[in-house]
Structure formats: structure tokens, C-alpha cells
Amino acid sequence: MVFKRQRIRSTSYLALWFGKLVYFLLRVAGKQGTSLPGWLLWRIRPSLLQELLQQLDQCVLVTGTNGKTTTTALIHAMLDNTKDPWITNRGGANLIQGVLAALLQHVSMSGRLLAKNAVLEVDEATFPHVMTRVSPTLLVVTNILRDQLDRYGEVDQALTLIRQGILLHPESQVIVNADDPLSASLGIDRELTYFYGMSVTPHHDPNRVEVRDGAFCLRCGHELQYEGFIYGQMGYYACPSCGFARPTPHFTGVHDDVKKNLQVTETMHQAESEVYSFYAPMFGIYNWYNLLSAIAVVRVLGSSPRILQDRLKNYEAPTGRMQTFPGSPQKILTLIKNPTGANSVLRAIESDAEQKSICFTINDDDADGRDVSWLWDIDLESFVTHTICQTYYCAGTRALDMALRLTYAGIRRDQVEVIDSLEKIDLVTKKAQGKVYILSTYTALYKLAAQFHEAQRSKAVQRS
Amino acid sequence: MTTCIKIAHLFPELLNLYADQGNLAVLAKRAMLRDIEVSITQVKLGSQLDLASIDLIMLGGGSDREQAVVGKELLRYKADLQEAVDAGLPILAVCGGYQLLGSYYELANKERIQGLSLLDFATIAGPNRLIGNIAIEWLQADGSPTGKTIVGFENHGGRTHHNYPALGRVLQGHGNNGEDHFEGIQYKGIVATYIHGPLLPKNPHIADHLLQKALRYRGFFEPLSVLDDELAFMAHNAMLNRLGVSMMMKEK
Ligand SMILES: [Zn+2]
Question: Candidates 3.40.1190.10, 2.60.40.10, 3.40.190.10, 3.30.70.1280; correct CATH number of A10-312?
């Protein structure tokens, strides 16, 4: 029996109180959701992370390259309840300071964690720090897709970091994406591992030229053969040389576009399979993956589908994950940060037959990636042949680069409108018919979300 | 008879680090707008490279590992490539592709990635990566200024020193090695550079320069007609502005 610490060490009190004071002062100053107290604690008392994590009864970690924030929010929505609260780090605060800041909100002055469960989103680079300090009850890997950072070879790096973390804890349950050969390689031949995957008619569109980084077998280096692609490198794959292949999922999802639900066939316990379905209003295949993995997590933890269906009704999309702002036109704000992510967002928009415009908001700060080459890796060419948009707006520090990219994808110059400041997006897009999808890089995203909220609020005030 | 040129994109499955298909899209579109037919052949690992039918080669950048694989693969063609280069075959080589034209790229651990030795120079890894937006003044092959600028993004650990005519003089950024204020190489048909972003969309004059070279190589000598590049030069000038470079590109 492992000794379970009930509170932090006495030598950590000062740091904890200081952290709580900073948190309190920030709250008084009206600032929320900042991870500054977490950052300070990590600087002055790094052992606190371990002292807090080890008090948890259940610790669920979410990692991978894309979809962590949505998946974490979905899991939290399905698990959290007043009787049994779950701690989480919201809004993509997935570095150590974000994890610490989330835990800090639930610690008593005597250093006891008041909530005993946590679902935490953890960045790939932060993952090893967390894994050396806690034995997670369960760990889910969303996917390992190409990021703009891969330009420095970081996909291999992310995979290595996650693999090393998993090897530290053979006792933890692991859930991985069967359709992604890179993720699946983490779970093959491992005990206590569950796979999830989609059952869809995979596209075989020769016009799609997406980046497929996982297209080579990790075991032997041979090119993988696909019966069909779903998106990115995800699909039904097998290695003709060594036999590495898509594992059979324990959770298989089928999405019904019309009924807007996700049907899950569960074969966790070999003998019989169980089928249940969830209302899934979100759209885009990548969101169904997020939901499917979240369902797998809560099912492995033992919740009944009935309760989950109820709790999911209260789910609200996190900032910039297909976040909807009603109005005329309706605005839908979504983060894009790499070609694969942008392609899946575009696929989702394609499936919307209503009248629409798109506003690309491309910044090039450090957090966005300073190199915007990736805009040319987005498969806009196939997007424009599959769907019709009224206007393509371009904003952000790299608005002109994006505009140029669009014209090379075959969009007429007079359909492209450059907006020279983020503040003007609201005004300029007023004339758009139908919806406006706003695809934004990281640093513009929160500004835009705040701006749209403010616009809604002032409109509500005017009306009353 | 229709004017037609053939472009070979070498190993797109390995050298795809900096969105080089952007460069190809620009070349193809600008040719198409002038009724020049373009065919782009993707030369993949293990497939045959038929140099005799090629009018322009695009050689992009990859990771060190991929660059080594490509270097090895291309050695088979070294003699043919050398002959073609001497005859003036246009080549656009970016980042890793640039380094491959030389004799080697020496990594920090002293390991050497063999190049093709088509040109006589070498690249050695520096202590840090040279990263950021860059603007250079485009030079003529004799070193005199053209009055035109080139903008883009650079991100390379290697320092390249050579005695060939440079593509340009660095106005803002690092260039070949961060020391001598030169960027790239221009030699016969070769344009080699660390500038990506990709290179050609915001530098349509360089795209046309390459197209013209390819056409001449094929035996067509008519001048290229002028295109509407307003948007491209707006983006170009916005970058110059941001870098505090006062020299501005005007539309042709
Ligand atoms: Zn294999």
C-alpha cells in the first residue's frame, strides 16, 4: 500500500500562502484565469506540484498535439458534479504554471486539496514533468499531428516524450487513438490500454494533398499502406513489411450528421458489445474524435452512459473551439495553428451548406509561430473546389500573406478583403450574409473572443 | 507550337519543411497566366530522374536526417547533375537544398551530411539557429545592385561561406552566415537561398527571373508579359516596412 500524503509539507506553507495571496489579489483586480500564481509557485517552490498531485484520488491526464483543450473540457463536463467536484485547467493553460494554478484554487490554507479528482490538460513538453510526479489513474493521447513546430523535428520529440512518460507508469490506464499510427504505436502490446477509432467511409479523394507525417511505419520505416484516409495521417493503415496495423478499437464511433449524434460501440470486455449514442451538436470530424476519446475516458472510469448524456447537455465549447457568437451575422470563432488543424476546420466548414464567409486572422507572434510558411501547407485548393464562400476576409499582422495565399488558391481578388485591424472585424463583417467563420491564430483569438463578448454585452444593454 | 516547361520537384515527401509547394504554385500560376504550359513532376525516393527533359529543378529543405537520405539518393545522378548545372539548368534550392549543392554540412557533433559537390563550398553548424524575417537587396551576377529587394523568413543552424556571386546583400536579418552580410548564391542557372516563407509568392520578380531562365534553357526567348502583382508587392512592402528597410519595391 502506497502511503498517500494528505497535505503538503510544512516547509511549503509559506510558498502556498504567497501563491494564494497573489491569486486573491488578481481576483480582486478583476483578472481571472491567469496562471501567474502558478508560475510564481513553480519558481519558488517546485516541489509543491508533486505535493499537490499526490493528494489526488483520481488523476486523468490529457495530452497529444491537437484537441487537448476540447477533450479536457468534455471530460470535465461529464465528470464534474457538486457532490464530487473535479479540478481542471481551463482554456488551454497546459503548462506547469497552468496546472499549478488550477490546483491552487482547490487547496485549503493548511495545504489540503479539497477536491480529490482532477482532469488536466498537459502540453507534450510539460508531460514528463508531470509524469515524474504523479501516477495517473488514466492517460489519454488525443493524436500526434504535425504542428508548425515540427519544422524543428518536434513531432518525433513529442512522441518520444510521451512514450517515455508512459513507460514510467505501467500501472496507469492508457487510452489512445487507433486511427493515428503515431499515437497507436504508444499502446500496441501494452497492458491496460484501450483504443478508440472512427468508423466512417474514409475519403479517397486524390485531390486532397494533406501532410501525412505518420505515413511511414515507426517500427521498420516502410511506407504505410492506407485503405482510406480520415484526416491528416489518420485512417485505416497497415505496414506491408512488418505487420504493424491499426489496432481494433474498444470504442468505435459513428457520427450521424443529420441526427447530430455520435453512436459508440463499446467492446471493452471482449464478451459482448454495448451500443449507446450521444447528442453531439459540435461539428467537424476532429470534434467527434475529441468526444469519442472523452467518452472512452469516462467509461473506463466507470460512469454510466445515461448520466453522461445528461451532463453533456451543459457542455459549452471552450474559447475558440468552434465557439458561437449569436447575432447578425452569426460568428463562429475557431483556433487554427497548423495545416492539419486548419484542414480539419475547413472540412467542417465544407459540411455546412448554408451561406457563409470566412475571416482568417493570422498573427505571427512567438505563440503563433513567427514563420507563416504553414499557410501554404493548408489545402485551400481542394476547399475552394468543394464549397462556396461569399467573402474571404483577412486580418492580423499577416493579413496580406493570407490574402496572397488565397488568390493563389484560385480565389478571385475581389472576393478577398483585407481588414487592417482586429478592432474593425466586427464592423467590416457586418455586411456579410449568413455566418462568418473566424479562423484565428493563438494571440488574436482571446482578443477577438473578448471583443465579441463585449459587442454582445453592449448590444444587450442598448436593448434594455 | 505551345511554349512548355517541365519542373521537377525533388523528393517532396522528404524535403517539405518550408512549404515549397508554395513556390511551385507561384511558378505554375505565373506561367499559366502567360499561356505557358507547365508540367510538374514529383520525383520520389527510388524513382528515376530524367534530367534531359527537365527545365527547372526545385530542391527544398528537410530535417538533417532527411537531408542525408536525399544527399545519398542524388549522388547516383551526380555526374549528370554536374553536366546540367554547367549547361545552365535552372535550380531553385532552398535551405537544406542549398546546403546539398555544396560538399557537406557539418553538424554540431562534427558528423557530416554529404552534399553533391556541384558547387565548391561547405556549411558548418553554428552555435545557434539564425531565425527571423529577412530582407536583402537583390544583386546582379556581377555584384552590382538591381534596385530590387527580396523578403522572407530564414531559419537555419548552418553557416555557409562561399566565393560565388551572392543572391543579395543583407539589409535586415542574418543571411549566409550572419557575418559577411551576404545571402544565397547565384551561379549560372542556380538560385540558392536560405530565404523561405515560401520565397516566391512575395517576390514575384524572382519567380519571373526563374521562369525566364527555364524558358531560355528550353529555347524560348520571348520576354514575359507583365502581370498584376499589386497584392504581392503590398505584402512585400509591408514586410520591408516592418523591418525598417526604406527601399521599396514598385510594381513593374
Ligand atoms: Zn513496418
Answer: 3.40.1190.10
pLDDT score for A146: 62
Q: Mean pLDDT score of chain B, rounded to an integer?
A: 92
Confidence of residue A211 (pLDDT cuts 50, 70, 90): very low
Which residues does A31 contact at the CB level (< 8 Å), separation at least 6?
Answer: none
In 3-state terms chain B splits into helix, strand, coil percentages (rounded to 5) of 30, 30, 40
Q: What is the pLDDT of residue A260?
A: 80
**Chain B interface includes A360 (CB < 8 A):** no
Beta-carbon count within 10 A of A110 CB:
11
- The reply to whether B29 touches chain A by the CB within 8 Å rule is yes
CATH assignment, A323-463: 3.90.190.20
Can you tell me the ipTM of this complex? 0.94
**B2-61 per-position pLDDT tens digit:** 789 999 999 887 777 778 889 999 999 999 999 999 999 999 888 888 899 999 999 998
Q: How do residues A103-128 score in pLDDT, each as one tens digit?
A: 999 999 999 999 999 999 999 889 99
Q: Does the distance separating the beta carbons of A376 and B201 come in below 8 Å?
A: yes
Nearest CA to A297 out of A61, A130, A124, A93 is that of A61
Residue in chain B closest to A410 (alpha carbons) equals B29
Cα B59 to the chain's mean position, in Å?
Answer: 7
Of A374, A376, A404, the CB nearest to B232: A404
pTM: 0.79
- At B121, list the grid cell: 563550398
HSE-CB for B50 with a 13 A CA cutoff: 4
Choosing from B174, B196, B205, B209, the catalytic residue is: B196
Q: Which residue in A201, A175, A150 sits closest to A340, CA to CA?
A: A150
CB atoms closer than 10 angstroms to residue A400:
23
pLDDT band at B252 (very low <50, low <70, confident <90, very high): very low
* Ligand 1 geometric centre to CA of A219 (Å): 5
Which residues 180-239 of B have a C-beta within 8 angstroms of A? 196-198, 201-202, 231-232, 234-235, 238
Strands B122-139, B168-172: parallel, antiparallel or unpaired by DSSP?
A: antiparallel
Name the class of domain B3-243.
Answer: alpha beta
Domain ranges (residues) in chain A:
10-312, 323-463
